Amino acid sequence: MILGAYFRLIRAGYVLAREGALSLVQELPPALAPLRFGIWLGRLVERPSVRKTGHVERLNKALNRLGPTYVKFGQTLATRPDVVGPQVANDLAGLQDKMEPFDPALVPGILLAALGDKAAELTELSAPIAAASIAQVHRARLKPAGGLPKTVAVKVLRPGVEARFMADIESFYAVARLAERFVKSTKRLRPVEIVETLDRSARLELDLRLEAAAISEMAENIKDDTGFVIPSVSWDQVAQNVLTTTWVDGIPIRDHAALDAAGVDRRALASNLLQSFLKHAIRDGFFHADMHPGNLFADPRTGDVIAVDFGIMGRINRKERRFLADILYGFITRNYRLVAERHFEIGYVPKDQSVDDFALAIRSIGEPLHGRTASDISMAKVLGQLFTITDLFSMQTRPELVLLQKSMVLVEGVSRALDPNLDIWTVAEPVVGDWLRKEAGPLGRLQDLKGHFDTIAEAAGRLPIIAAQAELALADYHAGKMEPRDRLMRGAMLALMAIAGVTLLVALWRMLTL
């Protein structure tokens, strides 16, 4: 099994090198400098056409051949023409929803096996409307017993996709372990933990019942919002490999000509998309983590953003949401000391580093961004700077934030394509600032108190156990069953238990009387 993973890894490396993927690597940050020789070696097998013209024309097909996990990586690159160049980004855009569908003749049998009698309520099944790496979508007519017929979207997993995904992930684990073992400078990036995060995400994506639940949760979160629309679920037609939702009509968000022809304000659309994402991440802690252009549409009547495909969702807790908001607000207001302090407080930068020096390093990144439009900012250069700085201060990668970081890159890329002059900081400020002001107000303080109260109440619930243990220890002590040394240790334990109990009770009393 391990040998198979290494073989697939070697094959993937050869295919990517052959199709010119390594030519996209312009420069490496210092932490990855040991890989330079490997990249030079890999470029020796490039197609002559790539070496001669510098054009990467077949990367799309190469990623498609390698499997669904590699396709996901290509989808992310497709939103970053500033990183890979407009020609490669345009080629990779075909990975988003234009892949070859599997045989439509298999679909009725799949629906019957998954849904049983409820499959009969799905009629007028169309040819595949969209096909991606994980699944394909069909339009159908849902005629529920005793209900009104309606048009729906039926998403069906590709047969055998689970096995391919798991094989890809196994190869990723292999390369992560190799990196940790042989490239010591990458250890702080926690490559194995990052792959574990991707592994969990992939397993969730391969169960469409969980996607249905994600749609339901997000619908509750945004029920009072405007400008961002998602479909609703038909639960009777949901199974592990089948998902049925209401059909949504809209213009693909990447079809700029169609948006312009329909009179959609692209600047407002870009602003709406970015602000909606920040609301979901910062306010709710639950966000769509696969917002590539193939999953986004615009309603020509209202200008609303319509999102589909909720297979990959991100979740961050309140502490991480506060960290994200403070970091963004620090950059917006140029309060680099705040940005630095938050990194230290949450434990992302070791305590033995200098807050002042870290704030100065953050300033070197933030200052060049202000007063400039998205078209003037090279995100590749900014990320390279950040990589260098985090390496300098021994900052470790946070695996729990990997999906958030990836999603922010996607959303920023799509928004930037809609409006090249988008001022990211100005657009973000209302969402971030309003949330932070709310957090600093009475409601935020009440939530803090609730968190503290829950922690202390849980600890207080253990007091009877502590008391019982102390009583038994005291009985043993009086019965003279212990040696002098044991008596001394038990006495110390009793004292510690008493101190712990009193501390908990005092803390609980203070919480109740604040």
Folded structure, characterized:
It is globular and about 65 Å long. About 60% of the residues lie in helices and about 10% in strands. A hairpin with a 3-residue loop joins strand 2 and strand 3 (about 135-140). It has about 525 residues and is an alpha+beta fold. Helix 1 packs across helix 9 (about 160-180) and helix 21 (about 465-480) packs antiparallel against helix 22. It has 22 helices and eleven strands. Among the domains are: about 1-95, no CATH class; about 250-440, no CATH class; about 445-514. Strands 1, 2, 3, 4 and 6 form a five-stranded antiparallel beta sheet that branches. The protein has a four-stranded mixed beta sheet with strand order 5-10-9-7. Mean pLDDT is about 75; it is low at about 440-445, about 450-455 and about 505-514. Pathway: Cofactor biosynthesis; ubiquinone biosynthesis [regulation]. One of its GO terms (biological process) is ubiquinone biosynthetic process. This is 2-octaprenylphenol hydroxylase.
